[in-house]
Amino acid sequence: MLERITDLSVKQRALMVVLGVAVLISGFWAVPRLPVDAVPDVTNVQVVVLTEAGGLSAEEMERFVTFPVEMAMTGLPGLTELRSVTRGGLSAVTIVFEEGVDVWFARQLVTERVREVEADIPPEFGRPQLAPVSTGLGEIYQFVLRSEQRSSMELRSMLQWEISPRLRSVPGVIEVNAMGGAAKEFQVVLDPRRLAAYGLTLGQVLESLERGNASVGGGWIERGPEQYVIRGEGLLRDVAEIGSVVVSADDDGTPILVRQLGEVREGAALPYGVVTQNGEGEAVTGIVLMLIGQNSREVVSRVHEEMARIRAELPDDVEVDVVYDRASFIERTLETVATNLVEGLVLVAIVILVFLRSWRAALLVTLGIPFAMILAVWGMIALGVDGSLMSLGAIDFGLLVDGPIVMVEAVMARLAIEDLSKRSRTETIGDAIRQVARPVAFSVLIILLVYVPLLSLEGTEGKMFRPMATTMALALGGSVVFALLVFPAGAALFLKGGGHHHGGFLGWLEGRYTTLVDRAIRARGPLVGLAVVLLVCTIPIGGSLGADFVPRIDEGDIVVAIRRIPSLGLSEARRLDLEVERVLARFPEVVSQIGMTGRSEVATDPVGMDNTDILVRLRPKDEWTTAHDLDSLGEAMKTAIESEVPSTFVSISQPIEDRTNEMISGSRADVAILLFGDDLERMSSIGRRIGAVLRSVPGAGDVRVERALGMPMLLVRPDRTRLARYGMRSEEVLAAVEASRQGRRVGHVFEGQRRMELRVLLPPIEQSLEGFRALPVGTSDGALVPIGQVASVVEADGPSQISRQSLRRRLRIEVNIRGRDLISFVDDARAAVARDIELPDGYDLEWGGQFENFQRASARLGMVVPIALAIIFAMLFFAFGDVRYALAVFSGVPFALIGGVAALAARGMPFSIPAAVGFIALCGIAVLNGVVMASEVKRRIEGGASVEDAIRSGAIAVLRAVLLTATVAAIGFLPMAISGSAGSEVQRPLATAVMGGVVSSTLLGLFVLPALLSYALRSTSESATSEGPYRDPS
């Protein structure tokens, strides 16, 4: 079958070359249409249910909202994890589904359960809503509005009602979060004394405003041939109309209006967060979120276009500063990938030219690379695989040209010895290609098999590395198409007859190799023993490397995450944020910074005022002076901040890293220890002890124990006995409590398309316990009594945050690791905690974070890789029909590991999943080189040569082919191995492992494999063929 395909290519060579050129030209259409991002989106399938309820306590929200929602979600099909965070006035329940579940189907399932549970949640505790459909890569653009002439309220309103709606209309944008500034609302600030003077209660005012702010429909009437719709418009439109609402009437019928009872004004909503910028003051910011599954480069490009139009229409005094732009990270990462690929292509082409010494042959072979890559791009588009650092950054061009290299070697050798006067050049080329077509297909099949284990990965690691395996498989498929259909046609058209040069360096090398391979065969015992010793020595070296999941990718910007005591007030948090930003501004590497404390008035993230994230934009790394790597710079910033700013705990992360870790595991740290139990005080005590133990483990950079307690409260409990004496009800006291600071929402006021809340408040009180006890409350007879006379007002401590997982309370201890590999740190930390911490009954620990992904991936690969290797061995046995050949060829796998491990150790790199991918690729390369030599040896033995002569002459005959395939495999990774550009952190371990392994497998293979074959076949050439005729590898 394969021979017929190559014969067809030679006969229809003009057509095949045209088709090949058409594929190359199609790349101009395919490449721009490939969805691209810097890194794969590894976020799991999840739906978040948010419920907001003003200033209610965390325990109340847990009891009345979080627990009912969690119970409603149990039993959902495909549910894998259920976790929640509850803070004062906010509940966030995260429902995680199995991979493969459609996110829209998951949202539909959750929505149905939410509708069922709504009836169980009291109205005053809010209504559950689903958070926007986004991912860890969703935050793609952030900007700040500035103006010297406008207030923060004007800027916030401009952002919320003019800019955000336009950005939300951009295809691919799901939400624009506005934060900072003052959110405008209409307020009625009642004077309790005036209420008492008119004999009115707070409840009467609330009822009047609610009823007086409505519109109704009355149907329609007919007048002649026309129909008129009947409408009753009673919506309030401005301060004047609000003040004119009638509450009651006095004894003589004079109406009592709202404005007579207090002040009606435009005011600012009670803030739950603050935004600061560059240590200069507050700011107003907008964060653009991308819809899941979108092409981030295209979406960011559309956002840029819309922002340009918005800028042109803004008032002259309003400026827009971009503080985060995903496009810059994407472009830097893709530039790294493109540069490494182009440099690798050029190096491979040069190596091929040097070895083949024919520019026609070198050009023809090299064209197989873009041909295969373009077919791979079309396949990626069809399969929905994005182009990214992971999918494109690990392509080995050497593997893509193995088939054409084998073919061109066969063709040029045949042309050098064939008498072209008796046969046509085309026939000679066709015969040469036909002879190697089956081995070429067999070679690609082996390489595909070694990538199968990556396709079996699941979860986070699967989303990271399956695209790589898929892309490589598509590219290999493209290389086979090129080798079988295009290369034969190109060879028939363009390759000329001539000498198969053996002079120069390659000739000298063959001469030296002839001598050395003779010695290797004679000293086969010691040589094999030396190889075994090297392999044994590799084991402890590999064990000392340490292990990481994936090297940390330098995004170019950092996030300074600050955690403080839960009781910290917003004003103090703002002051401390500005201090931190001034400290950061002293670092010459910093371009700009923006800090976000707490959450916006419309909650989308369950954080409190004790949480601050400062996004720091950095200069290019070649301009750094404080440090030369991200970890060192982060440590210097952390030390400076914690030494100069009090009450500040700092951890350093990056924008995508931070968001992705939080969405996947609910934690932003490298390692998260989960403590489960019931009593928050006891859990907090155990957590602090665990934190102290972890700080003593080398490599613990940031250790943070989640603060579940420490939220001071003023607790007001109505005294029903005292209330009865005044003829009052408890809801009147609770309404006064709500109106005292936050205000009671009684509706909305519309200004065109803008919708502002209408709230009723009481006058500001002295912010103390005694001041609150003096808060006046109206009685039924029109008198005023301090709230302290009808209710107990006491100070109390409560939980600031209640975290739950799997329907149990949970406390998290987080660790970020610095200067050490992940796995060895976790091993030492586990041992230390087990030694020093004894958990009481009903309390237990779980360890999570990045290392969990590594363990899961390692376990999966540990199961699948041996199966793939066993299949490869079976294929070798089938190909050679002799277990001795199969074993000898298969020995190249451990020999390849020697160099890979040594290279990682020499560069100080821990073992990681990218390095594992490199070792997987090495298996294919090592086996292929062995197949080339063993096939030639067996062919010569079948031809009647003695074992030693066949081994010697066969090894010499394939020397150039082995060196060429090994060199192009290694040299193609050289740019990745030495690159220091954005995203190269993932490529370097892979490239290092491949290059080191190719060196060891080639050197040992050229000498140890002949020795092994000599040892295995030492009886006679007949004994080597006793098991049946040789079959070409296929």
Describe the structure.
Mean pLDDT is 86; it is low at 1020-1034. Among the domains are: 1-33 and 357-500, Multidrug efflux transporter AcrB transmembrane domain (Multidrug efflux transporter AcrB transmembrane fold); 184-215 and 228-270 and 712-798, Multidrug efflux transporter AcrB TolC docking domain, DN and DC subdomains; 502-544 and 881-1034, Multidrug efflux transporter AcrB transmembrane domain (Multidrug efflux transporter AcrB transmembrane fold), CATH 1.20.1640.10. The strands form eight sheets. Strands 1, 2, 3, 4, 21, 22, 29, 30 and 31 form a nine-stranded antiparallel beta sheet that branches. The radius of gyration is 36 Å and the shape is elongated. The protein has 37 helices and 31 strands. It is of the alpha+beta class and 1034 residues long. Helices cover 53% and strands 20% of the residues. The N and C termini lie close together (11 Å). A hairpin with a 2-residue loop joins strand 8 and strand 9. The chain crosses the membrane at residues 12-31, 337-356, 363-385, 397-416, 436-454, 474-495, 527-547, 861-880, 887-905, 911-934, 955-978, 990-1013. It comes from Sandaracinus amylolyticus. InterPro entries: AcrB_DN_DC_subdom, Acrflvin-R, CusA-like. It is found in: Cell membrane. This is Cobalt-zinc-cadmium resistance protein CzcA.
